[in-house]
Amino acid sequence: FEWPGxxxxxxxxxxTRGRVHRINGLDQLAPPENGELFFFSLRLRxxxxxxxxxxxxxxxxxxxLEADAEALSGFESALVQAGYSPAHEEEYAKLKLRIxxxxxxxxxxxxxxxxxxxxxxxxxxGVERVEYEINLAGFEHxxxxxxxxxxxxx
Length: 154
Prior knowledge:
Layout: E1 2-3, E2 6-13, E3 20-24, E4 36-46, H1 54-65, H2 69-82, H3 89-92, E5 97-106, E6 131-135, E7 143-145
Parallel strand pairs: 2-4
Antiparallel strand pairs: 1-2, 3-6, 4-5, 5-7
């Protein structure tokens, strides 16, 4: 998510080891050209009695975006690109998730990440793709909000 002066990378995990997230590529946590980068971590657990389902969350997002036709259109396009299909909503609804932990982190120099600039001689020849995992345990000093309601973007 991006807006003037701020960008947020959002990741969810079901890891039982803690706030462990898969990062897809060296550019995913690269600093934006202008402004600050934040990382939103969402840790989930599959639970039969939980109230969060993918169709429910999609419906909530649509409701939040309905006043902004451009934003709603962008959201719908992103759903299609991600492979979301209303035809499968009944199947999607079988997976019920409970939010275990969430937090917003400021991505600074000591945030756990790999970027292209971190390789002194550049990316080694022949390396085409880099995927890695980060663990946010021990990085509480970079946590700026524990819940979305604690917005730092006002």
